[in-house]
Specification:
four-stranded parallel beta sheet, alpha/beta, 181 residues, single chain, binds iron/sulfur cluster, two-stranded antiparallel ribbon, 34% helix, 6 helices, Rossmann fold
């Protein structure tokens, strides 16, 4: 029986009758981008929008990301959704450090990105004070469509990342700024 395969999402490469060739970087990027495993660090109302994004209406499974992880060791996408108090900051950082490379971070909503309306002594004024952030999602709360857009941006980063980027001087310097080894 003939099988029709629609190679819509194949990375750039050479193809012909019965073969397709590309670079290892592109093949690895394709796999990583389509199997991001999110770890929701949801502390307040933005977390509810995250739940809506996982539900059948928005269905993050379409992006290969339905496998939510509550263990940092089995996740590569940290989604911080909600207000982070200063007391909680070291825990957030510990969770980030426990995640294996390569890993990405989405800061979802005004609170995670800047403290939001809580300009108070007890609230961290942005998670990028303790961990590096890849994509910021504005809003209070952001809609699920915005979170999906952020995920797609992370997919783009993962797809185009060089395999040696995580060992590069540039990346190590970025971690060093946060005192992360
Ligand atoms: S940004 Fe708004 S919706 Fe999100 S956690 Fe803060 S107060 Fe709640």
């Amino acid at each position: 029986m003939a099988v029709n395969i629609d190679p819509k999402n194949t990375p750039p490469g050479y193809e012909g009758q019965g073969f397709f060739a590309t670079t290892l970087d592109k093949a690895v990027g394709l796999g990583r981008a389509n199997s991001l495993w999110p770890l929701p660090f949801a502390t307040s109302c933005c977390g509810i929008e995250f739940m809506a994004t996982m539900g059948s209406n928005y269905d993050l499974a379409r992006f290969g990301s339905e496998r939510i992880s509550f263990s940092p060791r089995q996740a590569d996408l940290l989604i911080v959704a909600g207000t982070i108090s200063k007391k909680l900051a070291p825990i957030l950082r510990q969770v980030y450090e426990q995640m294996a490379e390569p890993k990405w971070v989405i800061s979802m909503g005004a609170c995670a990105s800047s403290g939001g309306i809580f300009d108070t002594y007890s609230v961290l004024q942005g998670i990028d004070r303790v961990i590096p952030v890849d994509v910021y999602v504005p809003g209070c709360p952001p809609r699920p469509e915005q979170l999906i857009d952020a995920l797609m941006q992370v997919q783009e980063m993962a797809r185009n990342e060089r395999r040696d980027y995580r060992q590069s001087e540039r990346y190590l310097k970025r971690l060093e700024q946060y005192g992360i080894e």
